[in-house]
Amino acid sequence: MNLLYPIQNTSTTISGIPISSSIDSYGSTCTSWGDPHFRTFDGLGYDFYGVGDYYLVRSTQGNDFVVQTRQQPCGTVSCNFGVVVKYQSSIFIIYLDPISLTPRTYANQELQNLNEFSLTIEGTEYTLIYPNFFKVVISAVPWPFGWYLNVYVTIPTSFLGRVRGLCGTFDGNINDYHSQSGSIISQSQFFNEWIVPNNENIFLNELYSIPNLPSSPASITLFSNCSIEPIPQPIETSKYITNDPPPNPIFVCNLTSQEIQDYCFSIFLNSSYSIQCNNTGNINTTSLYENCVLESSVFCDLSAAKQMGKILQDQCEQWRRKRLQS
User: Fold this and answer.
1) The whole model's pTM is what?
2) Domain count of the chain?
3) Measured between alpha carbons, how far is 69 from 249 in angstroms, rounded to an integer?
4) CA 264, CA 289: separation in Å to the nearest integer?
5) How far is CA 67 from CA 82, 198, 200, 310, in A?
6) Using one digit for the tens of pLDDT, what is the confidence trace for 25-83?
């Protein structure tokens, strides 16, 4: 580990230019935000307050594309305290320092050398654009007790049905509670299914390889010959450059209740795409509005609502196109 990208206060772009000539395109976005709330690639929404390291996204072809997240106690629930993104042999990690709870970042040399890749840092928001239309946005957000991370993962259309994990299978169906082989299981089994085994946990060792997924439930051996720690150990900070992390934020919320309500209303109830979605019966945006008001009030943060609004807009447009084609 020999390259650290610290939190920046100004816009910074690192490395090359994202691919623009591929016949592929952006497919769908999955989110894990707040404490945390999930919306899968296929549109299933659920909450999961587990503590541990999980596969948010895992390509069926092992090391092609992997996102692991670390959920730790956050008040009475849990929040994202760390994110690993592995694209082929490149690795990017952002985690909250176990002592200061402020963000630190790390990337290996392979990421720096990756062709057609860009990392843009806007304050405490990181946008990673990989070749072939993979995109990850990670926002480090302050709240009264430190920081937490919001995660937004976009994968290309070519990966339809080729991913697993807490973000679902991206197969066009919302029955996303699935096993490693893709078969349907219960919600509780689903959460346990995507705990990261120690010998695949990149938080613990960046050299670990991610195996291909089995083709049938009979070949699943997720917990054989390994142990899962219920509360993950802190990352060894000796592996990283020991520059001082940014100070804990002095938390002052300048948002009023009316401002939060107005903002959430403009996105989830009064925008043209939300009205269109409600009229077609594809999604009830009232519940999204109520959740937006609650989360934005608790965390004093509108950035997650803005990202969710973009995703809702994309989904409504997809439904509109499907209806025109039918």
Assistant:
1) 0.69
2) 2
3) 23
4) 6
5) 10, 15, 12, 21
6) 778 899 998 888 899 998 888 999 999 999 999 999 877 999 999 999 887 788 999 99
Cα distance between residue 2 and residue 67, in whole Å: 21
Residues 163 and 63 in one domain: yes
Do 54 and 88 lie in one domain? The reply is: yes
Three-class SS state of 214: coil
**Mean pLDDT of the region 121-132:** 88
**What are 101's two structure tokens?**
């709870």
| Spatial distance between the Cα atoms of 239 and 232, rounded to a whole number of angstroms | 17
The string of pLDDT tens digits covering residues 270-283 is: 888 888 777 776 67
Structural domain of 303: 257-325
Q: Which of 225, 196, 229 is nearest to 67 (CA)?
A: 196
* Domain presence at residue 248: no
Residue keyed to tokens 């990670």: 138
Instruction: Work out the angle between the directed axes of helices 257-268 and 285-299 (0-180°, nearest 10).
Output: 150
User: Rounded to whole angstroms, how far apart are CA atoms 89 and 246?
Assistant: 29
Token pair for 91: 């690795």
127-136, 188-197, 269-278, 308-317, range with the lowest pLDDT: 308-317
Adjacent-strand bridge partners of 74: 77
Helices 303-325 + 257-268 axis angle, to 10: 20
Mean pLDDT score of the chain: 77
pLDDT in tens, 173-220: 888 999 998 899 999 999 999 999 999 999 998 889 999 986 433 323
Residue at token pair 């692991």? 68
Residue 228, helix vs strand vs coil: coil
> How far from each other are the two terminal CA atoms of the chain, in whole angstroms?
52
